[in-house]
Amino acid sequence: GLTIVTNNLYLPAEAMPAAARSLYLLGGEIRAGARITIGAVGFAGSPGISADTAVIGVGGITPEGCSTSDLAEAGMMADMIGASQRTIIVADSGKFGHRAFAKVAPLDRIDCLVTDTRPPDLLVDALEAAGVTVIVADQD
User: Fold this and answer.
1) CB contact at 8 A, 123 and 97
2) Residue 66's closest CA among 94, 31, 96, 36?
3) Labelling 11: which of 30, 32, 34, 106 has CA 20 to 30 A away?
């Protein structure tokens, strides 16, 4: 019974029909290499959207916040965070300590970080201070 809104071009083909009541693909520019779209978080004729949870992958995460390499993508991510009640950031350990070009959000806008290994202590301290729950995914 989910309503899914995505800019990921892989997701519509992978989503199980029984799981999604509705699936919306955000429009805009297609970034073929990354298999995403970049554009406004919303739809023509609608004043805006509201989401329970935003799940966002980022290019970097530091004590100052999350970032990505593309300015338009950062704006789209920030808009989705603003439209959501809860934000989950997905970032593998290679993103720890990396500050990409465009800032997405400070840590206090994030509710949960899902990653593959425990972050370094300095980042853990900043995440705890911001109230971010860290989940290290089981690699089995």
Assistant:
1) yes
2) 96
3) 106
pTM, full prediction: 0.91
- With a cut of 90, say whether residue 45 has pLDDT above it: no
User: Contact 65/107 with Cβ under 8 angstroms?
Assistant: yes
- Going by pLDDT thresholds of 50, 70 and 90, the confidence category of residue 140 is low
Instruction: Count the neighbouring beta carbons within 10 Å of the beta carbon of residue 93.
Output: 14
Please give the pLDDT value at position 16: 85
Query: Which tokens belong to 35?
Result: 């298999």
Going by C-alpha positions, the residue among 63, 109, 57 that lies closest to residue 82 is 109
Contact 72, 46 (CB under 8 A): no
**Mean confidence (pLDDT) of the chain:** 93
Closest to 113 (Cα-Cα) out of 99, 98, 92, 94: 92
Helix (H) or strand (E) holding 65: strand 65-68
